[in-house]
Structures are given as structure tokens and as C-alpha cells.
Amino acid sequence: MPFFDPGPAPRSVPTGGLHAAATDRNRDPILEVLRRVLPPTGLVLEIASGTGEHVAYFARALPGLRWQPSDASPRHLESIRAWSDGSGADNLAPALLLDVERRPWPVLSADAILNINMIHIAPWSAAEALFHEAARVLDPSGLLYLYGPFQRDGRHTAESNQRFDERLRVEDPRWGVRDLARVEELALSVGFGGPEIVSMPANNLSLVFRLT
Asked: Which candidate, 38, 32, 194, 199, places its Cα nearest to that of 113?
């Protein structure tokens, strides 16, 4: 995964697991939002689970839900397995090999879908696939949760986000910090309402989309 930041290793990384330093900083703020917006029971599908640290942490914190991690990278699938096994959570399903752009996804239905820090390190077609498939897979009362940096009204919300965007576009011109208005337009086009927007630390946003 591009821009993987190993950072200082935590006290215990399971054998075969990868560690992303940002997870230690953002998992609790994200969890605070999830506690409020997720249903008490049901299936939560995470798209692009990456290292697997988030889903293992959330599964332990929210045991009433069933969690389905997924990723397109075999190395990430290995890391997800390692963190899942080490979590001790019994509500975590084995990770699925799932490429967001390969449609239809190998999932029949879900009560919620999580996607953390993906659409800015993928081509816009990945965001389009995410919303189209989420609208197909989610139950009528389901929600799609996104987390990451976003532009607002065509402008970056912080200088650090602008520098990050520039780095992304050098790595791949198809990548970049997305404008919130464009994401909203995409969501509306496939049947979601406008998002609930929650400001997060480090100039990130949580976006909660619900089907209309």
C-alpha cells in the first residue's frame, strides 16, 4: 500500500502483522463515531482493511456486531489474519480477497460498510465502485462510513493536507485528496443522502452516508 507509515512499533505486533502508526492515533476517535452511528447488531463489512489493526480493535470494542474485513492485497490479508488471531475476538470473520473495482463484490448483504483512508490513494474509479456496490449490498437501513482527508469547496482544509495531496499526485496522478462536493455528488447519484460530517483530529473527516 502506498505511503504505508510503519512508525515506531507498538509493544506487540503479532507475527505476520503489519503496523501503521496512524492507527494508534485515529482508532479511538473513529470508534467514538462508530459507537454512535452503527447498529447494535448486524454485519459490518470493511473495504480495504489494510493492516487489519482497525477491524481487530473495533471488533473487540463492539462485540455485538459481526465484522468482515477485506482487502485486495495478499500481504494485507496475511496481516489482517495475524491481527484478527491476536485480538481474541470471536466476532471476526476470515478476511476476504476483495478488489473494490471487481464487481459484483463477493458479499450478499451488510448492515454497514467501513472504508478508512482509501479513496485518496486509489483512482476515482475506486470511489465510484465503492458507492455503487455499497448501494447494492447495504440493507435499506444501512450506512456507509468513510474516513480520511477531504477538500472543501475546492480548497484544502490544512497546509499539511495540501502537502500530502501533492505527494500523492507525484506518486500517481490518478490519486489525490478528494473534494467533498464531488464525493457527495457521487453518493447522491446512487441513492445515498447527503453525509453527516464529523470533524476529526489531524484535519480528517468522518462521513456517514445513509440510503434514502
From this structure: 38
| Domain 21-210 CATH assignment equals 1.10.3120.10 | no
What 3-state class would DSSP assign to 34?
helix
Residues 6+ apart with CB under 8 A from 67: 43, 44, 46, 55, 58, 59, 89, 91, 92, 93
pTM of the model: 0.94
pLDDT digits (tens, 9 = 90+) for 20-29: 999 999 999 9
CA atoms within 13 Å, Cβ hemisphere of 63: 5
At 107, give phi and psi (nearest 5°). Answer: -135, 130
For residue 4, pLDDT beyond 90: no
Q: What is the largest CA-CA distance in the chain?
A: 45
